[in-house]
Amino acid sequence: MSKRPCVATIFLLILVTSGCATGHYSPLAGADKDQVEQLKEHVYRVEYRVSSFTSQEQLDAYLRRRCAELTLREGYDFFHFAQRADVLALSRRTSMTVTMYKGKKPVGVDNVYDAKEVLAQQPDLLSGAQ
User: Fold this and answer.
1) How many Å apart are CA 114 and CA 41, to the nearest integer?
2) Domain count, the chain
3) What is the model's pTM?
């Protein structure tokens, strides 16, 4: 028996099972320890992983939600995206350096998100709706 059909079958199974992983948000509480790392008092590295079939837009929405959850959990109100690193293979990984702020929204800083607004705008992520 040839190994080609076996290799093709295994590849197809990986492809199908990877496709099943799209569209489901994994809350911060379920994150592995290596997916959230505190770098300084109010600076974190946050990572989110999805299948390679998940769109960049969906991945970014998941990452924003993860950062919003972390921001509120740590007692902050706003977060700012800084350095980003993307890896694309059979799965996709994005990590982001996130700076958090308390009180009023910082002026003159781009890409600052209100954590409560992010969570209010994306309630469908928990159900997996797209």
Assistant:
1) 19
2) 1
3) 0.72
